[in-house]
């Protein structure tokens, strides 16, 4: 009898939310106002992070910028302040260093206040075959692209839970949903970031903290220095994405409390096919789309030598 009741309740809720999702496809959700929110963006010194900073500054949010490159971060700060009477704070922070993340987080809470929108955007790309990736670079990929998310969320989530108000944004990647040749460390770290964000979303739902929203973003390659030299075989189907276009999509998704955002829309079809076709068919599809060779001419950024934090981790 209990199983029957549970089934009826499940079907009722399932149908309700299915109809709700259809309605929102026709009538967009009401967008929230981010004026006065404290928005922290990691990797804000360039690319997507800088574009997102511009979007939030234009809507009167208080913007907190984190980047390991202080010079480029200050340039983002300058550009954001040009958007009008807006508060912008720039901090140098190496997101691969746990102690530094917690130290700068304490500084932000003291000087700015409790962060209400956290955007984990910082990322690095190696773009080399697996056996050519130095160990310290593979480790740094995980620390920056995934493990740093644990630290930033631990630093800022307690205040969100206390107030039942906030928004966690994870910038993952298509490579966090599908393995891509030449991106073994990057893809693995982005899978980890996606899994962490999704698990935390479900955990917060179980805690009834329904006013803390989650947005998980999985874009294809964006035209930034990170993916310089990457190619696409069929740009009409799987285009290299413009920074401002992706930033606007992410900004809209945050305002509408959208949980999943995958760009471009064709990727939804590819991901569906991945679940139902054979591995050999997946390889053929990848070859057709040029995914197997998209990293062949990759240039990207120069791999940095071991940092003090890399050497320190060796001895831990």
Which segments are poorly predicted (pLDDT under 50) over 5 or more consecutive residues? none
Describe the biggest sheet? 7 strands, parallel
Mean pLDDT comes to: 90
Note the overall shape.
globular
- Strand portion: 5-15%
| Approximate helicity band | 40-55%
Instruction: Name the structural class.
Output: alpha/beta
How far apart, in Å, are the first and last alpha carbons?
A: 55 Å
Please state the CA-atom Rg, rounded to the nearest Å. Answer: 20 Å
What is the total tally of β strands?
Answer: 7
Count of alpha and pi helical runs: 10
Return the string of H and E elements: HEHEHEHEHEHEHEHHH
Adjacency order of strands in the biggest sheet? 3-2-1-4-5-6-7
Write the layout of secondary structure elements.
Elements: H1 2-26, E1 38-42, H2 47-58, E2 62-67, H3 70-81, E3 88-92, H4 98-111, E4 117-120, H5 135-163, E5 166-171, H6 184-206, E6 212-219, H7 243-255, E7 260-263, H8 266-276, H9 279-289, H10 308-314
Parallel strand pairs: 1-2, 1-4, 2-3, 4-5, 5-6, 6-7
Helix pairs in contact: 2-3, 2-7, 4-5, 5-6
What does this molecule look like?
The protein has 316 residues and is of the alpha/beta class. Helix content is 50%, strand content 12%. The chain has helices at residues 2-26, 47-58, 70-81, 98-111, 135-163, 184-206, 243-255, 266-276, 279-289, 308-314; strands at residues 38-42, 62-67, 88-92, 117-120, 166-171, 212-219, 260-263. A 7-stranded parallel β-sheet has the order 3-2-1-4-5-6-7, with helices on both faces. Strand 1, helix 2 (47-58) and strand 2 form a beta-alpha-beta unit. Helix 2 packs parallel to helix 3. The longest helix is centred in the middle third of the chain and has 29 residues, at 135-163. It starts with a helix and ends with a helix. The model has no long low-confidence stretch (mean pLDDT 90).
